[in-house]
Every structure is written in structure tokens, then in C-alpha cells.
Amino acid sequence: MIEGIDVSHYQGQVHWNLVKKAEIVFAFAKATEGKYYKDPTFSTNWYGMEDADIFHGAYHFFSSEDSGESQAENFLQALNGKSYGSLPPVLDVEVCQIQHGPFIQEVKIWLETVEQALKVQPILYTNPSFWNQVGNGSCSEYTLWIANYQVSQPTLPNDWSQWTFWQYSQSGTINGIDGAVDLDRFNGTLEELQQYSQKHTSPKTQESFQVEEVQPGASLVGIADHYHVSLEALVMANPQIAPEGTLLKIPVKSVSAPSAGKTAETTYTVQPGDTLGGIAQKFGITVDSLVQSNHIANPNLLRVGETLRIPST
After folding, report:
1. 16-31: per-residue pLDDT in tens?
2. Cα(312)–Cα(310) distance, rounded to whole angstroms?
């Protein structure tokens, strides 16, 4: 079987190159929960998995307190123009605080809304005891990702005859991650996982871009606002904005309380091949905080020898 993991903000900064070396082949990252919450580590994890060449997908934690439609909108907004990955999107269904009939109806609305938007059928994550209480046979057509621990083989919920992904531990340890992480398996070989990816994810569409020449006084923040895109999406589409040798100030968390009147900080010198997105990921921060902390009005004008301050947060 093929090994994988799933992560969220609980894992903190994940060093995906080390995870890849630990023979992790696939991973899912939490994107959203309910109709408002967006996981703050999602984008960093997403691009980290992509750069490490790990099969990857995004998941949403379903809340019985919000409508399926509003939660689907939250999830799609979090993708923010990203492809949904080399694995289908996932709906995590494991908590219900309302009547089961209306609950399953809202689950179906999420699944159908996301499938219609992304043109790919989502995966459904659940555990056997929970689903046997709330399920009514209406979701058996979806790929099953089953959570079942301390067993040699997972127990299937009533609506399925086979599993595709299995979360078999909540307390795994993997090089590249501090602390515990969920461990998963794919029910097949690497070749079968590749085939699954090709079959269950539609071909990626070619991204379209509008090209703008940066004018004097322009800033990435201003350009992003003008075109209604996120700063991170703009940076990721233009990785050349931090030329080789540029020194960038990187915000970092303070390990200990600084002395009175002083702020702990460090600096970073841009190395050949660096990008703002890559540097932000390296230090576990967002591109926005990197740009704002260094007052970068136009990253295209960054020069070799500049120092990027890393203030404590």
C-alpha cells in the first residue's frame, strides 16, 4: 500500500521536502471549515506539496451548523484559482448536531456544488460508527476515505463495499513534521494511484493571465487590489519578483521575550533561485507579511545586497 498523510494548522510548519524523503507519496491539506473558517497554513502547505511533487488534495471539515451551499462557497474561495490538485477535493464528515435527514441533504449540496464548480467528483471522508448512524445510502457513489484506528483492516460503513483511502492513525511521526500527524494509506500500488489521479481529476485548464507593465510608484498590493486577486496569487504567478541575491526581511516568531525597548529580529539574504513565495514558506509566514514587513513597494526593484528584516510576531 502507498503511504500518505493529512495536515492542518495543528502541524505547524511542514518541511515537505523532508516529508517526501520519508516516502510519503500523497497528502491532503485542510483548506476550510464551516462557512467562514480558512486554515491559515493551507496555501503554504499546498505549494509545499506541489513543489515536493507529492500527490495532493484539499479538504473541507463539514459543520452541521451551516448550510452546504455556504460551506462549498467558503471552500471554493479558499482554492482562490488554484487547481484542486492531483487528487480530488475531500469533504470531511464526522460531526452532526442536527437531525440526520436534513444533515445528509446539506452534505449532498456541498458535494454537488463543488463537483459542479470543479468538474470533478469529491471524496467523502468519514468513520464507520458515525456514518452508520447518519448515512442513508445517498452517498455511496463517492470515493470513500475511511478513518478507523488500531485495526489491521478498516471496517466499512454500510453504504460502501470498498475503501480507497484509509486514515489508520492520528498519532504518527514523520520526518519534517514536529509532533503527531494523521497517517493514511491508498488501497493500491503507486501505478494505481497514478491511474486514480488521472481518472478522477479532470485535465487542468490552462491559466490565463493579463500582463501589466509595472509603473513608477506601483506596488504589488495596489495591483492585486486593482485586479481583485490575492497578493499571494500575484506573487506565485510572478516568482521572478525577487531577483537572485536580493536580501529580504522575514518576520519570525520570537522564541523568548525581548529586553525592554528592543524587538527580536533576524535577516535573510536572497539566494539564487529564491522567490518571495519560497522564502515565505521557508520561514512559515505569508507573502503578505513578508511584503508588508519590508515595505516592498515594488518587488521588481529589489536588488542584490538588500537585507530583509525578520521582526518577531
Report:
1. 999 999 999 999 999 9
2. 7
